[in-house]
Specification:
Blueprint: H1 27-35, E1 40-45, E2 48-52, E3 58-59, E4 62-63, E5 73-83, E6 89-96, H2 107-110, E7 118-119, E8 129-131, H3 133-136, H4 142-160, E9 172-174, E10 179-181, E11 188-189, E12 194-203, E13 206-211, E14 223-226, H5 233-245, E15 249-260, E16 265-274, E17 288-293, H6 294-301, H7 316-325
Length: 330
């Protein structure tokens, strides 16, 4: 059956940003928000949000008239409001600074599976750096992780959906950045979110982990896959596990979800009870898969397992495995 209480604390899943969706259709209201002295803008460079502090543990907000925003492509995107220190609502925006071309970018580093490089714009404080969100997410507060995920997802959507899918004419941003309108055929386009099931497949005291081609050496995680048109979540769980490792699944349950803007997924965490043990990985789908006991997963979490390294902290896979180890899923 599907349902049950979800564990709390999934990174980026707090819902504390007041998105004020009803205000997006009012250009005057959006302009007033931008003119508010309390308004702040999150610059994003090629999908990497600006973070600040020596520990890179907070977002690098700038004022709405900061000179660096002269580089913003497509103007400001309205994210919503947050509750300020004095209880007042403070507007928050995002801006795409991807047109900026740093002179010291390491192309190999930025193209890696996990980009560990950081970029500093000379008009910003020295501790403000554009940083890969996978690295920053676990250090940010739940609210700022949600904001960063929203900003990245929206701006990457604008970058990849600049033309009308109906007639091919260049579309224009609208509704505070939450839509694109076609000036030719009048079509309205909306940001996409792709549902992905990610499965905590268990059998007794063991959990099934796999790894995809191109992942860092030793990295194993939970199996996952996109939900197809006309498919329920339960059916997607059973199909993906059967396709990837040849194992049948019985009972399926819902645990938690996480926005994952890499580039536009909603990860839907599920439990899945395996009906058999034999692992037959499809070499196209996965590079390897194996069963690990709780004790072995605990070893992997502290870097002591001889083969497996855990999913990255901040991911829903890491969150689900941690709660499974602690027996906090019921």
């Amino acid at each position: 059956t599907f349902g049950g209480a979800a564990p709390r604390g999934t990174p980026g899943a707090e819902g504390a940003l007041d998105r004020l969706s009803g205000m997006r259709s009012d250009p005057a209201a959006i302009a007033a928000f931008a003119a508010d002295p309390a308004a702040r803008v999150l610059p994003v460079w090629r999908g990497k949000p600006l973070v600040a502090g020596s520990g890179r543990d907070r977002l690098g907000w700038v004022v709405a008239d900061h000179p660096v925003l002269g580089l913003a492509r497509g103007g400001l995107t309205f994210l919503g409001t947050v509750r300020g220190a004095r209880g007042r609502s403070e507007p928050r925006f995002a801006a795409d600074l991807s047109v900026w071309a740093p002179t010291d970018v390491d192309a190999a580093a930025t193209a890696a599976f996990f980009d560990q490089s950081e970029q500093h714009h000379p008009d910003l404080p020295a501790d403000h750096r554009f940083t890969e969100l996978r690295a920053a997410m676990v250090r940010l507060s739940p609210l700022e992780a949600e904001i960063a995920a929203t900003a990245r997802g929206l701006l990457l959507w604008h970058e990849s959906h600049g033309f009308c899918a109906r007639c091919g004419v260049r579309s224009i941003p609208a509704f505070g950045g939450w839509q694109r309108h076609c000036p030719s055929c009048g079509a309205h386009h909306f940001p996409r979110t792709d549902p992905v099931v990610i499965m905590l497949v268990t059998r007794g005291n063991r959990v099934l982990l796999g790894r995809s081609h191109g992942w860092p050496d030793g990295m194993f995680s939970l199996l996952a896959g996109f939900v197809e048109p006309g498919e329920t979540l339960e059916a997607a769980v059973r199909r993906e596990v059967r396709e990837e490792v040849g194992i049948g699944i019985g009972q399926v349950g819902y645990l938690a979800s996480q926005p994952w803007p890499f580039p536009a997924s909603l990860m839907i965490g599920c439990t899945a009870e395996a009906l058999d043990d034999a692992v037959n990985p499809d070499p196209v789908e996965v590079e390897a898969a194996m069963w690990l006991t709780r004790e072995e997963v605990a070893q992997a979490m502290i870097g002591a397992h001889p083969v497996a390294r855990p999913a990255r902290a901040g991911s829903i896979a890491h969150f689900l495995l941690t709660n499974w180890l602690a027996d906090r899923l019921d």
